[in-house]
Q: What sequence folds into this?
């Protein structure tokens, strides 16, 4: 598999005809540069969305006051006891307070920059997406034993001949992913679910950082698969929600995001079997 994440053709298959390889040569070169930039951004976001503050955060928070306190103690120890005035302990305490304030400021500034990087990633999505609803989904810790579902609404109908290419591209990103096709008022709908993890394994304290693994999975799916789909077919909206294990049907309320209309739900596999049996 190649390292050009935004080209659906390269994600999907190997050994395509020579004419197709020549046609995509220029695109591969541009995609390689884009992939390097995307990899750097992804590494930054991985650090920004760590489940717990890393050692660099603790260093920013406790490093300056510790250094200031040690410097003050060493300065006092280097002076004879009789030459230590009553004001010098106050200077030592003030130095520690200033160091603590500096450390707190650096810590808060670092967290704010990471949060802004996360918002920039949300805004960079070229389709309709509701960050508030997505963050609420990440922070919901009471949904136990729920799998993840990503609902993709296209701007037009995806041809049946292209469905296999889309499925191969998805398998290249997540071999365990499930998918189901549907249609709403002439627009194709793709529902992607990954059975490789559930939210109950990720949600622990009810904060957005607890589901960082889930967010990394969605970001990888978005950067390597959804952007390729958008380039090829045009995506109208993307929504992320939980789902009952074994189902890929679209809920009327759970998958609503900006840009999505009120349309008939895509039937699940079990529903189609019941209808055919009847």
A:
């Amino acid at each position: 598999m190649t390292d050009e994440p935004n080209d659906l053709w390269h994600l999907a298959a190997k050994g395509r005809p020579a004419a197709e390889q020549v046609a995509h040569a220029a695109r591969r070169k541009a995609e390689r540069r884009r992939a390097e930039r995307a990899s750097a951004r992804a590494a930054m976001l991985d650090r920004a969305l760590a489940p717990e503050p890393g050692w660099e955060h603790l260093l920013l928070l406790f490093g300056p006051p510790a250094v200031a306190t040690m410097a003050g103690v060493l300065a006092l120890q280097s002076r004879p006891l009789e030459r230590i005035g009553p004001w010098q302990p106050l200077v030592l305490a003030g130095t520690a307070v200033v160091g603590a304030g500096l450390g707190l400021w650096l810590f808060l500034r670092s967290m704010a920059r990471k949060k802004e990087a996360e918002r920039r990633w949300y805004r960079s999505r070229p389709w309709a997406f509701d960050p508030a609803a997505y963050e609420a989904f990440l922070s919901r810790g009471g949904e136990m034993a729920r799998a993840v579902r990503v609902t993709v609404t296209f701007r037009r109908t995806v041809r049946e001949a292209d469905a296999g290419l889309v499925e191969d591209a998805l398998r290249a990103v997540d071999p365990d992913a499930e998918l189901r096709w549907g249609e709403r008022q002439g627009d194709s709908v793709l529902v992607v679910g990954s059975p490789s993890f559930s939210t109950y394994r990720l949600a622990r304290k009810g904060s957005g950082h607890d589901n960082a693994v889930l967010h990394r999975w969605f970001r990888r799916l978005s950067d390597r698969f959804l952007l390729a789909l958008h380039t090829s077919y045009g995506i109208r909206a993307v929504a992320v929600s939980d789902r009952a294990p074994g189902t890929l049907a679209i809920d009327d309320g759970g998958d609503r995001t900006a840009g999505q209309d009120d349309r008939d739900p895509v039937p699940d596999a079990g529903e189609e079997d019941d209808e055919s049996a009847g």
Residues 59 and 128 are 39 Å apart (CA to CA).
